TrEMBL record:
<keyword id="KW-0472">Membrane</keyword>
<feature type="transmembrane region" description="Helical">
    <location>
        <begin position="732"/>
        <end position="754"/>
    </location>
</feature>
<dbReference type="Pfam" id="PF03706">
    <property type="entry name" value="LPG_synthase_TM"/>
</dbReference>
<dbReference type="InterPro" id="IPR001173">
    <property type="entry name" value="Glyco_trans_2-like"/>
</dbReference>
<keyword id="KW-0812">Transmembrane</keyword>
<keyword id="KW-0808">Transferase</keyword>
<keyword id="KW-1133">Transmembrane helix</keyword>
<feature type="transmembrane region" description="Helical">
    <location>
        <begin position="664"/>
        <end position="685"/>
    </location>
</feature>
<dbReference type="Pfam" id="PF00535">
    <property type="entry name" value="Glycos_transf_2"/>
</dbReference>
<feature type="transmembrane region" description="Helical">
    <location>
        <begin position="760"/>
        <end position="781"/>
    </location>
</feature>
<feature type="transmembrane region" description="Helical">
    <location>
        <begin position="528"/>
        <end position="547"/>
    </location>
</feature>
<dbReference type="InterPro" id="IPR050256">
    <property type="entry name" value="Glycosyltransferase_2"/>
</dbReference>
<dbReference type="GO" id="GO:0016740">
    <property type="term" value="F:transferase activity"/>
</dbReference>
<feature type="transmembrane region" description="Helical">
    <location>
        <begin position="335"/>
        <end position="359"/>
    </location>
</feature>
<protein>
    <submittedName>
        <fullName>Glycosyltransferase</fullName>
    </submittedName>
</protein>
<feature type="transmembrane region" description="Helical">
    <location>
        <begin position="449"/>
        <end position="466"/>
    </location>
</feature>
<feature type="transmembrane region" description="Helical">
    <location>
        <begin position="697"/>
        <end position="720"/>
    </location>
</feature>
Length: 1030
């Protein structure tokens, strides 16, 4: 018993760890997306950001907060390419200047700013992204351990919101918001701990002290958290610890004020800045602020079209409802979330000087947003128990991610920037929303009315959520319900589809089609060179597939090649090199490779790819490659190398003879010189394509120059945001060609032609790799050509074995008796037993069926047609029937034709018989139903590779073996999946013509949209089930 408990605890910890890591990684990637984004036109930083970075630079250089020398030297130029806004004044006769911003963020970024100038600012932004990842991971952990949110829900909500505005935006902008939010989350984690000791108090004090040193504006939030902790710990009897904490915080407060007087000449940092010195330090909140005007922000912070966070991430519209749920359920420690959040929200409402045009949305509330993320997660875990509701919530999260990525790509590639005109972003989701939202910039009556309308709607949503959360059925834990993995998979497909469409539109608008046409005309004039280059390019990927096999011996060559080409094609149609995961997904789904082995080997080989090429480029032309790599590329290359080492260690552990995980990677799978040699040879073959394309344009490159151009182009793509590195590839390749003495205009033409050839190859071959070899990435869409051979069963010899005819029925009282009476009493010498499977009818169906002489097999509630057929087959098998048949109970099919239907079964000629309406006599059928039946039948016929003429017939017969073995996984319907299941496992199929007449009364349950939405995925799962594979 104890062993089981410990095993369960270990499993729970492992699950939590996975979701903590997953949410942290999503947050990290979401933040890193914006590293290269511009904050304003002509500069990557704006507003306060340069001063935070200059403070960090001054601390890195000489340990001083004085940035006068840095300003005089214009040390800001690598990250702020335009003139610097003056925010400081000389503090004394020496000309000493300090940034009017608290220094702790500068301390955190000082190690990064100690790097060479071009690498320092990307490293500083990467540091903030890492802090954002830590914040996401801790938030997930607190949601699960302190507030009892399911790990999957916590991970999805935290990860989704951390990779969207505003959390992702401030995970890369140089502001103290994310570090402050991390400090608040640490304090809340300590505050809600079940036990408290001295180490807890010390950690709590450290987190609280950090807040004003990050920015004095966080003091109200810090005060609320301190008050909550003092009250709780005092009430729980930890009074000595309360006095210790109070003493430490008192000393920290005195030190804060004294040091500010010493360093800044005032009680706050604002004494050092000419922003506010003329009006006094308190003018930071504005001169004669209008409380009523600022009160509008209570709602505007959420729904304003300019600075409201829900305008970018629609999931935040649910915040009032989520707060109502947490209050209604009286969640333990709810005030540890809600009170600091309220303090932060009120501070942002009434204290912040301005909202419009100075910062990206949400800056002043980021410090408490992770607490509200937990509130949303807790509410989602309570209310989103149905598949539809959970899907809607997931869509809201994904739309926020798409909006942020869209803006980050725009800000990186010349579109709207993060601060000055972020409101002009072309994100379709945001564009659809802002027409419905008030815009405080207009300051008109119409917008005030619209703001009031939104306030009423939000209060209404909170009231509805309060009432819903009070119902007992939603408070209990859910066993039903949501297949999180399937919905996440569907969400990923949806995001990929949206990105693909958006990228296509962006590409059409961005690509210079005239230059592309000129390049293609030149290339097509020399088909021999072009074919030689393409052959070399293709052979390069053959070698990479062989290298992958060397690492994963279980992986077939065809699937290795397909996975590589899928990643290549995906990278050319998706931004941020998002095609890379397709390589792992492909071999996991199609070749049965264990996910960890596929991921580790992919990371290792891709890292090796990059590093081998950089080494080749350095050998051939070190100056060019170093210049093309740039500071960000250098950081990325270092990350790539670190990932490669980590993957190598994973594979080494898996291939160890003593490792329990050695199975997926047999001994000998650890890469060596042969893999390095294959990788180097692959790059040299790609260089042949460079050589041939250059030759088409009349430029004869040497082998070394071709390698340099290739290495320069790939180095430029390491930090590419656009699909296929559009723009960065051409620029880097042109620079590489210029270093070889090629004129810029000619070099650009070669680069465009080279990229066009590679893109065309990647998309064409990547599309083929979706389907070839079998199974394709989408799985099996048809049954295999070679049918499974099943021994022919001996014919039933018992003359008294019955033929069972069952009829699924739901509220068929007016018709069922007539249908039952029309069934024959015997067929081919066998007695007929008629059963009615009552699917939770609420009329007199049962009484009418019994009166007509049928056996009734009831369902307690309405479970669906598929469930009724499944019940009927099971009951018939228990009767030791010679044959089993079923038809609808509504009179559309004639039970009198039962003898013809079961004859092939009784004669031993078939195991499964379909009564075909289209081969028989159709008295009448609605035209749209006839058309739908014909289309679906054609689909079934194509899927099963047999001449099926009626794939949706409701009149079918089975041999005893087929009836016992039939599987209907869907309660909604049976038609296609039953045929696929039986034919896929070798049962013999036949058809007989039948008579059909349209039902005279009643209503069909089939609705086309719902039918396709439910049946098509079920058919796909049936085609790819292990049951058919066996």
């Amino acid at each position: 018993m104890m062993t089981d408990v410990r095993a369960g605890q270990a499993t729970g910890r492992a699950l939590l760890t996975r979701w903590v890591v997953a949410s942290a990684l999503v947050a990290l990637v979401g933040s890193l997306v914006g590293v290269g984004a511009r904050a304003t036109y002509g500069a990557r930083t704006s507003g306060d950001e340069p001063y935070y970075l200059l403070t960090a630079l001054g601390l890195a250089r000489d340990g001083s907060l004085d940035i006068a020398d840095e300003i005089e030297e214009e040390a800001f130029r690598p990250f702020h390419e335009i003139a610097l806004d003056e925010q400081t004044t000389p503090l004394d006769a020496s000309g000493r200047r300090v940034s009017p911003h608290d220094p702790l963020l500068g301390v955190l970024l000082a190690p990064a700013m100690a790097l060479p100038p071009d690498a320092a600012w990307p490293a500083a932004k990467a540091t903030l992204a890492i802090l954002a990842a830590l914040l996401a991971g801790l938030t997930t952990w607190v949601a699960v351990r302190r507030f009892e949110v399911r790990p999957a829900v916590a991970g999805l909500v935290v990860g989704g919101l951390s990779a969207a505005m505003p959390l992702a935006s401030y995970g890369t902008q140089v502001y103290p918001e994310v570090p402050a939010a991390l400090a608040v989350m640490v304090a809340v984690a300590v505050l809600t701990a079940p036990r408290v000791g001295l180490r807890h108090v010390l950690g709590f004090v450290a987190a609280i002290v950090a807040l004003p040193w990050l920015a004095v504006k966080y003091a109200p939030v810090a005060a609320v958290v301190v008050l909550l902790a003092g009250v709780r710990w005092w009430r729980d009897g930890h009074r000595q610890l309360v006095w210790v904490g109070a003493g430490l915080l008192g000393l920290a407060g005195i030190a804060y004020l004294g040091l500010h007087q010493l360093w800044y000449g005032g009680w706050t940092v604002y004494a050092a800045g000419d922003h506010f010195v003329s009006g006094g330090e308190l003018s930071v909140v504005g001169n004669a602020p209008n409380p009523f005007g600022r009160a509008k922000r209570l709602v505007g912070l959420l729904v304003d079209a300019d600075f409201g966070i829900a305008a970018w991430t629609p999931a935040w519209f649910a915040l009032p409802a989520a707060v109502a749920v947490v209050l209604r359920q009286r969640v333990t420690d709810r005030w540890a979330l809600l009170a600091p959040a309220a303090g932060g929200w009120l501070t942002a409402t009434f204290v912040a000087l301005t909202m419009h045009g100075w910062w990206s949305p949400g800056r002043q509330v980021v410090v408490v947003l992770p607490l509200l993320v937990i509130v949303l997660a807790r509410a989602a875990d309570t209310l989103l128990r149905s598949r539809t509701a959970f899907t809607a919530g997931l869509a809201a999260l994904l739309s926020g991610i798409v909006g942020w990525v869209w803006l980050a790509v725009e800000a990186t590639t010349g579109g709207p920037v993060l601060i000055v005109d972020f409101a002009e972003s072309g994100s379709p989701i945001r564009r659809a929303l802002i027409g419905l939202l008030p815009d405080g910039r207009r300051a008109g009556v119409a917008d005030d009315v619209l703001l009031l309308v939104w306030a009423v709607l939000l209060v209404g949503s909170a009231v509805a959520a309060w009432r819903r959360a009070g119902r007992a059925d939603v408070v209990t834990a859910s066993d039903e319900a949501v297949d999180v993995r399937r919905l996440v998979r569907a969400g990923a497909i949806a995001v990929g589809s949206v990105l693909a469409v958006g990228v296509t539109v962006w590409g059409v608008r961005t690509v210079d089609t005239a230059a592309l046409r000129t390049a293609w005309d030149t290339l097509s004039a020399s088909p021999g060179r072009l074919l030689l280059g393409l052959a070399s390019f293709g052979l390069a990927f053959v070698l990479r597939a062989v290298a992958w096999q060397r690492v994963l011996p279980r992986l077939s060559f065809g699937q290795a090649l397909a996975g590589i080409h899928l990643a290549l094609g995906g990278n050319h149609v998706l931004p941020l090199r998002m095609g890379e995961p397709l390589r792992v997904v492909s071999v996991v789904r199609r070749a049965g490779v264990e996910a960890g082995a596929a991921t580790a080997s992919t990371v290792l080989l891709r890292s090796g790819d990059v590093l081998v090429l950089l080494v080749l480029g350095m050998l051939a032309g070190p100056a060019v490659v170093t210049r093309m790599l740039g500071p960000i590329g250098g950081v990325v290359a270092g990350i790539v190398a670190a990932l490669g080492v980590a993957a190598w260690l994973v594979i080494a552990r898996r291939t160890s003879p003593t490792s329990a995980a050695a199975g997926p990677l047999p001994a000998g799978g650890l890469p060596g010189l042969s893999v390095i040699g294959l990788t180097a040879a692959a790059w040299l073959l790609e260089a042949v394509l460079v050589h041939q394309v250059a030759g088409v344009f009349g430029v004869q490159l040497t082998a070394a120059e071709s390698v340099v151009v290739l290495a320069a182009a790939i180095a430029g793509q390491l930090v590419a945001v656009a699909p296929g590195g559009i723009g960065s590839y051409e620029a880097a390749a042109t620079a590489g060609l210029a270093a070889a003495g090629v004129p810029v205009a000619t070099g650009l033409a070669i680069a465009i032609g080279l990229h066009a050839v590679k893109t065309a190859y990647s998309i064409a071959v990547g599309a083929v790799a979706l389907w070839v070899p079998s199974p394709g990435l989408l799985g099996n869409l048809r049954l295999p050509r070679r049918a499974v051979e099943r021994p022919v069963p001996a014919r039933a010899t018992e003359p008294d074995a019955p033929v069972v005819l069952f009829m699924p029925a739901h509220n068929e009282g007016p018709r069922v008796a007539d249908v039952v009476r029309r069934a024959p009493s015997t067929v081919h010498g066998h007695p007929v037993v008629v059963a009615v499977i009552d699917d939770g009818s609420t009329d007199d169906t049962v009484a009418e069926a019994v009166a007509a002489g049928a056996v009734v097999v009831p369902h307690p509630t309405n479970l669906g047609l598929g469930a009724a057929v499944r019940t009927g087959l099971g009951w018939a098998v228990e009767q030791h029937a010679a044959a089993v048949a079923f038809c609808d109970a509504d009179g559309e099919y004639d039970p009198a034709e039962l003898g013809n239907l079961v004859a092939p079964i009784l004669d031993g000629d078939a195991d499964y018989v379909g009564g075909s309406r289209f081969a028989g006599d159709i008295e009448w059928m609605r035209p749209h139903r006839r058309a739908g039946n014909l289309v679906l039948t054609a689909w079934v016929r194509w899927t099963v590779r047999q001449p099926v003429s009626d794939g949706q017939t409701g009149y079918r017969a089975f041999s005893p073996g087929a009836a016992a073995d039939a599987q209907i996984p869907h309660d909604y319907n049976y038609a296609q999946v039953l045929t696929i299941d039986l034919l896929g496992r070798g049962y013999r199929y036949a058809e007989v013509p039948i008579t059909y007449r349209f039902r005279e009364s009643g209503r069909s349950f089939v609705r086309l949209g719902r039918y396709l939405r439910r049946v098509v995925p079920t058919v796909w799962r049936q085609l790819n089930s292990p049951r058919l594979a066996a």
